[in-house]
Design goal:
The complex is a heterodimer of chains A (143) and B (111). With 143 residues, chain A is mainly alpha-helical. Chain A contains 7 helices and no strands. Chain B has one domain. At the A-B interface, helix 1, helix 5, helix 6 and helix 7 of A face helix 6, helix 7 and helix 8 of B.
């Protein structure tokens, strides 16, 4: 069972690390190769390219681009989630490095505690889902 | 548990577990006392195919992770709008394995 738990913890950290790398790579590629020509409808987003419709995350990379120029209002207009993604994307690498150096699993434990707390307060999840859906509808009108 | 019951259980439920763990599951079940074997039948396993369908349809909102009891990751997926769409697509390939691991974890709770 201990083996299984450590396997679960490792799996969690690997997922988060790979997602961070993939996310920042996508944002960097978007910034370098596409951002200036975005008006032509060119995008690296697979979902937008395949379906032609914006996903709930549409505008996040552009929002983070605005944040790099300290334009918070512009970032909120592009996609309010760009603030959350930028905050998480900046904090998580340092948290993972801290855990790796100190041989701790604090990020995993916080994730577990958050999970237990949300299971006791499921209405928060419902509110978040509604927020994402409303934002998605707004995306349809914008992009 | 009797060998015959274990065989029957594996015949109907093998699809719910990682293929590489079937032998381990078999050994654990054979060692399982009869009073705990009753609990085994009350366990509800998640169907990997059903989770794949959920992941394809509403995976962008993290619902697949919520169903597997990974609430923290579910919220992270929800708030990043499916990890900018990347996590959504990656989970289409991972979620069946995750479901089988989840079922194995549930089984390990009783044995």
């Amino acid at each position: 069972m201990d083996n299984y738990l450590s396997h679960q913890v490792k799996r969690f950290y690997i997922i988060i690390l790979l997602l961070l790398i993939a996310g920042w790579t996508l944002i960097a590629c978007n910034k370098i190769f596409v951002h200036k020509t975005h008006a032509d409808g060119k995008t690296l987003c697979l979902i937008k390219t395949i379906t032609g419709y914006p996903c709930p995350a549409c505008g996040v990379s552009r929002g983070i681009g605005r944040l790099t120029r300290l334009d918070v209002k512009g970032a909120l207009w592009q996609n309010p989630f760009s603030l959350i993604v930028a905050f998480g994307g900046l904090i998580m690498p340092f948290w993972i490095i801290y855990d790796a150096l100190n041989k701790k699993t604090s990020l995993y434990l916080v994730n577990q505690k958050l999970g237990h707390w949300l299971k006791k307060n499921p209405y928060i999840i419902v509110l978040l889902v509604v927020f994402v859906l409303v934002n998605w509808i707004w995306n349809f009108t914008k992009y | 548990m009797e060998a015959k019951s274990v065989e029957m259980f594996l015949m109907t439920n093998a699809k719910y577990f990682p293929p590489e763990s079937i032998m381990m599951v078999k050994e654990k079940l054979q060692k399982l006392p009869d009073d705990k074997a009753i609990m085994l039948h009350s366990l509800q396993f998640k169907d990997p195919t059903m989770l794949l369908i959920i992941s394809i349809l509403i995976g962008g909102l993290g619902i697949d992770r919520f169903v597997l009891g990974q609430t923290g990751l579910g919220v992270a997926k929800l708030l990043t709008c499916g990890g900018l769409g990347i996590w959504t697509i990656v989970d289409w390939f991972l979620i069946m394995g995750e479901t089988r691991n989840y079922n194995l974890e549930r089984l390990s709770h009783i044995s």
